[in-house]
Amino acid sequence: MSELDIKHISVIDALPVYGNVKTILEVGAGRCKIASYLADMGYDVTVLDIEPRDNWKDLKEHKNLTLVVGDIFDYTSAALPYEEYDVVICSEVLEHLPEYKKAFKNLKTLATHRLVITVPHAFSFAEPGIPPIGHCNFWYSNNSWKDFPAQTETEFRGKDMVIIAEPKLISEFISMSHPCSISISKIRTKPEDTKNGQCCYLMVIDKRQHYG
After folding, report:
1. Nearest Cα to 92, choosing from 132, 120, 130, 127?
2. What are the φ and ψ backbone dihedral angles of 102, each rounded to 5 degrees?
3. How big is the CA angle at 122 (ends 119 and 177), to the nearest 5 degrees?
4. How many CB atoms are closer than 10 A to CB 133?
5. In a domain, 125, yes or no
6. Which of 67, 88, 131, 185 could form a disulfide with 136 if both were Cys (CB 3.0 to 4.6 A apart)?
């Protein structure tokens, strides 16, 4: 638990406390801190990532953890052990994807109980570079225009493409989640985050609760 920060813990705390949750999929798990912790707890955890990480070799023997190389945009071609998962986790990934809405749709399709997502607020933790390395999506809340520079768009020029990133309201995920219920909150991981005005959004979409 000592390797987990408050963001990781908040994601884990977002798992349903009711219902029979057994299977969990984490997409874009990085070094698998959340995934390996949940596997240690006894959950049947699958990791889907676009490429293997350097520490995967140390995790391959974990009896509750399955590591799969694949693309969320073409997840049906990946060797996932299940067609659906009770819970799907995607932390700090969508800000890197120009087609994030398609990725979100696929994540939502894969989850039967709950989808848990984190994305940076505004330019928090922004990484330089062309996606998928750098950020190309920036979300803010109604009262946080001040977090953005004077220009309303950011341009990313790469070798083969130009991406125009326009700031977006985090509330767009409400309509994207419809008719499922969603909660949106903010997480500050470290004291420096408060000092630097950085935080993340935590979104929890429950597919068992519908509205409208």
Report:
1. 120
2. -65, -40
3. 45
4. 10
5. yes
6. 131
Residue 43 forms part of a structural domain = yes
Residue with tokens 């140390």, as numbered in its chain: 58
Residue appearing with tokens 């609760």: 209
Assess if residue 1 is contained within a domain. no
**Phi-psi sector, 135: left (phi>0), alpha (psi -120 to 50), beta:** beta
The domain spanning residue 10 has which CATH number? 3.40.50.150
Residues of the chain with pLDDT > 70: what percent? 81
* AA letter at 18: Y
Host domain of residue 135: 6-210
Q: Is residue 130 part of a domain?
A: yes
Angle, nearest 10°, between helix axes 6-13 and 33-40?
50
Q: Report the predicted TM-score, pTM, of the whole model to 2 decimal places.
A: 0.87
Length of the chain: 212
Alpha helix stretches (DSSP H) within 26-150: 33-40, 100-110
Tally of domains in the chain: 1
Rounded CA gap, 212 and 201, in Å?
24
